[in-house]
Structures are given as structure tokens and as C-alpha cells.
């Protein structure tokens, strides 16, 4: 007999199907285009009329994630296997180059699991995966993790020392390398402390040919003895995130969290077997690679995977794959708004957009132009122990915690010192909670269950884990997770994201650690000193990287640009450069950045030479008032 939680998941699908199925087509349309537009308009009206209440979506999410510990050996691969038994021919993962039905996906997962057992990838051993977006990405980590192996999801945009660092901190025995990523891996090899055994996909290299190895294994499900004693509390993934300082950190992600993310988002999005989600976010990130696809797979729906986001092909993909949901980040929405209007943007069957970073200034414009019936904005962090959801659709808010769920998501906002970034303490030595309207750092209580807070699984580096834990917050001996994010709570209880604390800024959907950029810059010939920071750019989400440099006569901007291109991922290379005679420091030799941040790249405020990394040529060019105006007005888009 199936467990109660799984029966809820399956038995409620039938009641959800009708909510997203397109209505019958009009009998006599004038032409094909008009016919489709009429259908889409009717579908959107139907989606709005049948949109579930906020209370119902919360209840669905709770039901799908309740009592996971009752089945400690049931992993997410088992959910896929169950759907494969029920609907083997239904599409699970779609893309232009590769697609899997549920039966094919389950078979591919099983082949990866058997291969992992054969090479000893179980009981906590680790494999790094360097592979672009494709359906096989999910089959890979679902299969390997199902027999106890840990899969490190590596950013495919990294090169050189940054890539080597991510491989090294995973302590990986094996690395799965797609043909598209061979050059990036070769750039990292000289910097590796220990080189893992490489397995190639699609490279044609007979040594370590993973395609051939997988084909040799049977696709049938593994027995419980073959699976081993793998429980939901064991580590399944390493997902990398940049904190306030340093190189990327590898965050531990357990099977329990994968199940929770998948079930929670499935419930809140009201997902059904009729849904198709468009996912153009990186699969090496927690949202694009775990929360988004697992929400649909949990409900028996489909996921259309794009290799990367493209404003030019976005709406064509939405129509071609017949998607009902898409996953966004705020910058993606801004790119779509800036793109020329097209017929495709009106010809879709979307009922929901779900994501994070959609700011209030474009929320309603975005929803109205593209006729999105519902937007579900949320806040979460890969390593975080709480999340927020704007189920009510209030523009600009990242969510709120309903009183009935306050025990499940114990979060607060505490006052911090603007200069040091440290919490402000009372006379009793405890933190001070912010009143409504006050800006502070969001924190989440660390505990072992629903009543005393959620666990914080930390990183592979224990010292980095300690840095994220705040003690004696509201009671002596308590512990809270530091998000590093500034927020405020409004009078209605909704939370709003303000900015990052400290020296990390977000650009192109990625966190950029200034210390990593500084280290790369200081290794460049002619650079004597450097200070990296983020500056606001009109019309863009996040902050663009800017570097203030002190240089000598040997400094050359072309060499500087080439040097950073080999050391840093594209999003971390500074968009702006300022050449200064000296950099200001405090009495303890900490860099003073506030004046630099305030002045930004405005030549009317800055007497020093300023340069822009031209997005058209990739080289640096001088900034005068005319160039500055073109950036501010959006004619030059970074």
C-alpha cells in the first residue's frame, strides 16, 4: 500500500488537471493566429477564475512535505520511478537536443545508479558534474545520489583557479565532463591539488567513455539491497554559493531538502500532470536545477529545459513547448520587457510565473504586458534554513510567513551596524529585532524540527559554516542562520528585499565575492592595489562590478582584460574601472568603499579616469558624459 503522503500527491492530480487544461477551441476562427489568440485569452480567463486560494496552496504544500521522516529510505528518484510505472510514455524532461519520457528518465536514472555502484560512488563518495543544461543532467544526479553518492554541481561558466577550487573543495574521486566543457576543465588542471578520474560524455574519447559505460548496465529498478541503506538525512548534492567573502563555498544539500523543495514548490504552484514548466536557469543552481524541475516531477508534469536564457527565443520556446509555468529571476523579466514586442508573447498558455528577484517597479508592467495570470515570488538561499513565499501576489514583496506557519519558518530581522555589518546588541548582550519599516539582516532560527527551527546543513568547510551561525540572538544559547540579506517588514507583515550585507553583490543572477575578484586583479601586471564593489545601474537588477585600481606605468587595459577573462567567469569581470592615485583605508587598513560606491561611474562626480567594458567589443573604453548618459538611458546595456 502506498503511504498516506504519496496517496495525497497522486489522488489530488485528477482534481487539478481541469484547472490548467485549455478550453475547447472556437468553432469558426477567422485565421490560425486569431484562433490561437482567442484560445490563449480564454485560457488566461480560466486560469484567473480557477486560481486556488492562498490558504489552499499553503495546505497543499504542507501536505506534500509532511512527515518525510515516516519513509526515511524514500528518495526523489523513487517519486520518478512511481510516475514511470503509472505513465511511462508521458513526457518528463524536454529539450531541443534530448528528451525523456517518464519511463526513459527512470531507466536512465537506474543506469547511472548501477554505474555509480560499479565505480564505488556510494557511502559519501563524491563526483563533480560539469555539464551544460540538458535532461541528462537531472538523470545523472538523481541516479548517483540514489545509491549514496554525493554529486557536486559545478558552475559551467567557471575557468582556471575558480573552477579548480570548486573541484578541490568537493574532494571528488570522479568528474563527469561533457564535451562542451572540456576547454574550461583544461584551464583548471594546472591549479588542481588532486585530479579526479574523468568520465566523458559526447567527447568521443574512448578512455573513460561514460556513454559506453552506462549502456552496459540494465535499466531496471534497483533492489533495496542494491540501493543500500541510504536515508533522507544523508547528503545528496553539493551546490556552490558565494558568501560575503572568498571563493565559492560548497553547500551541503540532503535528500530531505530535495524532497522538501520539490514537494513544497509543487504544492504552492498547484502543479499537475498537465503542467509544463519552462526552465532556462542554470541546472547547477538550487532553483533552476532542483526546486523548479522537482516541483513538476513531483506532480507528474513536464519540464522543458533550455540550454540558456535568450530573450529572442523565449516566447517562441514557451509556445513551442506549450508551457503553462515558467521559472524566472528578476533580471530575466527585465530583459524580456526591454525586448521588442512580438506576436509570440501573446500566444501562450501560461498560468503562472514563479521565481525570485522581480522588483516592484516592473511587477505590474511585466504581468500586464505578457498577460501572466499569477506571479509567485519567493525568497530562499541554497544553504538557508527558511524561505518566504508571496502567495498573495503583492507587487514588490518577497513574501510573508502566515501566523499558522510561524513555527515552521521561524525568521526575524535584526538590527545591524551599517559600518561593521555586525548585529547591534542590547545591554543584555542580545540582538534587537527590527520594528516594521526598519532595515536589518534576515535570520532564521536553527533547530532540529518544526517547533524549534529548521536545521542548517552548512558547507564542506566547518569554518565557513561557523561564520553563518549567529549565537545568543533572542535568548542565551540560541542559534540563528545569517542570510547576509538586508530586508524590512512592512506594516502588513510582508517582507521586502533591500540589498546584500558586506562585500558580496549580485549581478547577472550570480553572487560575486569581491575578495575573489580582488585576488585576480592584484595578480595582473601593473596593478598595485585594488578595491572591488558593486554599483547600481539604471534599469538593471543587482549591481554591476566596478574596480578602483592603483596602477604603475606597466599597466595595460588590454592585458588586464585578457588576464581577468582567463581568471574569472564573465559575470565577475568588472564592468567599470576607475584609476585612482590611492585607495582610502581605515586605521585598521580596511578599505573604505562607501565614497567609491556613492560616486559610481559618473564622470561629473569623479575626476579619475573611468572605463567601461563595452558589451559590443568586450574591451574597455573611456567613459565621458555622453557615454555615461547612454548607459543610464539604456542605450548601452551591460
From TrEMBL:
This is Blr6285 protein. PANTHER family: FATTY ACID TRANSPORT PROTEIN 3, ISOFORM A, LONG-CHAIN FATTY ACID TRANSPORT PROTEIN. Belongs to the ATP-dependent AMP-binding enzyme family. GO terms for biological process: long-chain fatty acid import into cell; long-chain fatty acid metabolic process. It comes from the Bacteria. Keywords: ATP-binding, Cell membrane, Ligase, Lipid transport, Membrane, Nucleotide-binding, Peroxisome, Transmembrane, Transmembrane helix, Transport. Residues 516-590 form the AMP-binding enzyme C-terminal domain. One of its GO terms (molecular function) is ATP binding. One of its GO terms (cellular component) is plasma membrane. It is a multi-pass membrane protein. InterPro entries: AMP-bd_C (IPR025110), AMP-bd_C_sf (IPR045851), AMP-binding_CS (IPR020845), AMP-dep_synth/lig_dom (IPR000873), ANL_N_sf (IPR042099). Its main location: membrane. Residues 81-402 form the AMP-dependent synthetase/ligase domain. Gene3D superfamilies: 3.30.300.30, N-terminal domain of ligase-like. It is found in: Cell membrane; Peroxisome membrane. The lineage of its organism: Bacteria, Pseudomonadati, Pseudomonadota, Alphaproteobacteria, Hyphomicrobiales. The keyword Nucleus does not apply. It holds the Pfam family AMP-binding_C.
